[in-house]
Design brief:
Layout (H helix, E strand, L loop, with lengths): L1 H9 L2 E2 H5 L7 H13 L3 E3 L10 E4 L1 H4 L2 H14 L12
Antiparallel strand pairs: 1-3, 2-3
């Protein structure tokens, strides 16, 4: 979900961009997740002939259709998690 979230929010991202995210995903897990999401056709490489580490990724049409799901989870978290994690949830 973090990879999909980053692509929804930021658009096309590189392997290095994902590594620099605040969640600090490890390189081996990131590589596996990118491969899995590519196999599931939720993301794709911007240059299919380049290696994964030297490439950028973007959402496919199927991956982009997850945007409302992520937005719904965000709204749910804003409503239901604020009493448990008020320091993590920002209410506008």
């Amino acid at each position: 979900m973090l990879i999909i979230r980053d692509l929804v929010i930021h658009g096309t991202r590189t392997y290095s961009d994902f590594l620099e995210s605040p969640e600090h995903i490890s390189t081996n897990i990131l590589a596996l997740r990118l491969k899995l999401l590519t196999c599931l056709k939720l993301i794709e490489r911007t240059n299919p002939d380049a290696s994964a580490r030297n490439n950028a990724f973007k959402l496919t049409e199927s991956g982009a259709s997850l945007r409302p799901v992520l937005e719904g989870l965000g709204r749910w978290a804003q409503t239901h998690l604020k009493e448990f994690h008020s320091d993590m949830v920002k209410i506008p």
